[in-house]
Amino acid sequence: KPEAQEGYCENPVISSILTAIWFKDAKSAGVIYEKHFDPISINLLTFIFTLVSLHFLTFVSANRLHIWQVHFCISEWTTGQFKSKILSETNVATTFEAFYTDLKRWHNLNPTVTTNRRKKLFTRAR
């Protein structure tokens, strides 16, 4: 439904990933190094977008295990059979760079609005 669509960087999956990986508990990096996560950086968003686009992400949220498939890497099926790819800089560099360019372009459209959006991501993740 069009009315249910999310804006750019507003899908709740992003906040869930941030919480599960960087804000899980008092010993998590996002809690310990809070000043480096507020607002959520373009680089961290790029990293999340890259990983989500290439793989299933499994994480614990609200005491339940969730498997999120946001986008499946079709190249793992080019032969007609699944062949897992190794997550390496070589395999993800092009994807990372494309997301980084898109996120920088998004940020530059209106830096005040996008910075506030990234601050909201930080607040929701905590």
What's a concise summary of this model?
The protein has helices at residues 12-22, 29-32, 42-54, 89-109, 111-125, and strands at 57-61, 64-68.
Question: Number of helix segments?
Answer: 5
Strand order of the largest sheet: 1-2
General form: globular
Instruction: List SSEs in N-to-C order.
Output: HHHEEHH
User: Share of helix among residues?
Assistant: 40-55%
Strand content: 5-15%
User: What's the gyration radius in Å?
Assistant: 16 Å
Determine the structural class based on helices, strands and strand pairing.
mainly alpha
* Termini gap: 29 Å
Stretches where pLDDT falls below 50 for ≥5 residues? 56-72
What does the largest sheet look like? 2 strands, antiparallel
Total number of beta strands: 2
Mean pLDDT: 78
Task: Describe the model.
By secondary structure, the protein is mainly alpha-helical. The chain contains five helices and two strands, in the order H-H-H-E-E-H-H. Strands 1-2 form a two-stranded antiparallel ribbon. Strand 1 and strand 2 form a beta hairpin. About 13% of the residues have low confidence.
List keywords for this structure.
single chain; 126 residues; mainly alpha; 8% strand; globular
List the helices and strands and how they pair.
Blueprint: H1 12-22, H2 29-32, H3 42-54, E1 57-61, E2 64-68, H4 89-109, H5 111-125
Antiparallel strand pairs: 1-2
Helix pairs in contact: 1-5, 3-4, 4-5
